[in-house]
Amino acid sequence: MRCCNLHNRTSRSEPITKLIAICQKEKSVFDKCQIPININENLIMKLQFDDSCIRDMDQNVNKKSKTYDTFIKTYKKFNADELQGILSTSVRQIKDYVLLCVPCIGCRTSIDSFIKTLINYRHQALEPLIIDEKGSFAMKSCYISYPDYIYTLFYIHASKLNSFIGSISKSKKNRRCNLHSLDKTKFIIDWELVWNSMDSECRNQVTLVKAHSLLDTLENYLYKHRFCAECKLKVLEAYHFLFNSHDNRYRIRKGFSPALYEVSN
To answer: Which domain of life is it from (predicted)?
Structure first.
């Protein structure tokens, strides 16, 4: 595990969350603040979180406040080993807390799946928090000796997160958020938002379609929707011409439009 670099941090003007790659599950390697998003049984998307929580750990701390003064006095009562124990909690306790403070069952299920992923992959998605060898959430040891970072995490970031959870729109009937709503009219379906969250490499991977996969999908669609023989033939001819655009047999057909098969760079 790499050491924390708490003093040589660069700042950015705004937080960024990006989908940065699509990769095989068994070959996946994760850096800090990265989590996997399942696509299917073999593939995942890699989501990169902004590291502002780490970069700004000692920012905006009001050291003259009574809360900060009380925290520092309490912090100084414990040695490093005691602090390590105090700043850890079991997965069971986390789940019990989520059950109380997150009303949406869909969100709770997602959190549960995320925790399982953290345990399975053992990566640094939540730095400065980690999953230790006991299977508990704990603070990375190199942060323990910096009280301002601990204070910021539990008093500033935690307050913002609690406010965020409270602001999520929920159904009065079943307490589900709009993302997990059973009402289809309230579904959040915004492919542009997802597309804008992808970096160029991820976009290239998403838009890359293998010929045999496309043909399988096409044939299944034609069968499922019971296309007549003539229509099916025309669709398959269009597919074959797409991958053999220099074949003059198709170019001489009536109604042929070459613009439909041009590939833009």
So the answer is: Eukaryota
